[in-house]
């Protein structure tokens, strides 16, 4: 099919704002359409994901699809004011309606793209959009509050927020200057590379005075609403997943910043989407990747030659099936995951894996679990003797981030798997390990820590990290989480603690798939900070984003275990 290209094609939204798109369409006849809505410039389609970008564009055009890449409201060539996620449902609906009205459209639309472009797909799919037939979000989640801007445990995703807000504010200012307009961002001190250094961020307090801070803008709103309140409910598409009626192909990485939300969204689609087609024909693919690196190769850990895959073919089969009605050559597996440790792809029938057996690994020690050389252990049998370990969390000297699911990469901030030797020798890190394994142990699924804690402060944080300790001594992180203790019962209704009182809490540690091989050890690391991935808790119980270093207090946190307080790491074990 011969295609023609048109740049900056205008489209009016229902409130009169003009959005512009680059359009590849048939010279004659009609075609199904694939849509990307991006905040990162339609002229680059950056982060179309492994299954997006220009390589996929040519594949899709050659397969007979029209393609539309649109700048979202207030970005690049589109008019209006950019406010993340506020207009994406309505603008997406209007765009799909516009596409289906064109004489070159056959009336069917699919969407693709990664990161923010995946978030816009969720905003569209949870709204009524006649003509939408399928979505393929990559590295994206539907929930902006507790799966992105804040953690599932209520801590601010500091490095991500400062990085992304700085980038978006800078792009908006450049756009205004190019148009000869006066920018209300002209006074912004935008975040530079030096400011992303953990040492620099360590002194950039309060959070509200970080260099990226934009007075009266959406970043202010994010900081002013740490609780899950009406502000976040208005843009939470995860709460509307029952309105999804089209199949979803979700693709992500075990070390991606949005992996917790991505997998949670898939489970919600499977159980509560608004049509049988959406529930039965949605698919999940997860590899050994982070948000930017889709090769599976890292300085301290390579996941082998199978790690890097071209997802375009599977995306094309997905769109052919749901936009053209063409059955795939073979039925696609409902779930396809890369199992780390054995470094192999595996097809599964569902998520959670039907044969998952949640198993408690109990924390135990002689009272000195501090550092990797301490006496902390993980035991399958619950200890009958009461015990405890204490660490001191000082906000002026937080435990630095050492890999994991975060953004952006930078000086001192590596993404993905990192040897924990850079932090596990600190006295404010508790380490609990199994004995050396004699048989392989597979962990695939959501991980959590159920722990009894007390503190000298009215509020503090508990971090938990699952680590694979290799025979050569490398201690490689797999997944982690953080709980701001004021949110121990609810993200909507924070409750301060009584100093010295013991509370049983659950720390969500996200999701992974890894086989711990013979000769390895399973380890849990517990502390009170993971900075600058997350903001540091001031321990005062106040508004953290407005507190300076001199306002912050030191907290002594005690982890209780054994006897009547069985603290335990809960692992999803697969035994085949």
Please provide a written account of the structure.
The protein has 576 residues and is of the alpha+beta class. It folds into 3 domains: 244 residues, Rossmann fold, CATH 3.40.50; 69 residues, no CATH class; 218 residues, Galactose-binding domain-like (Jelly Rolls). 19% of the residues lie in helices and 30% in strands. The protein has 11 helices and 23 strands.
Instruction: Please tell me how large the radius of gyration is.
Output: 24 Å
Give the beta-strand count: 23
- Percent range for helical residues? 10-25%
Give the name of the CATH architecture of the largest domain.
3-Layer(aba) Sandwich
- The backbone outline, from C-alpha atoms, is globular
Compute the separation of the termini in Å. Answer: 49 Å
Quote the CATH topology of the largest domain.
Rossmann fold
**Alpha-beta content class:** alpha+beta
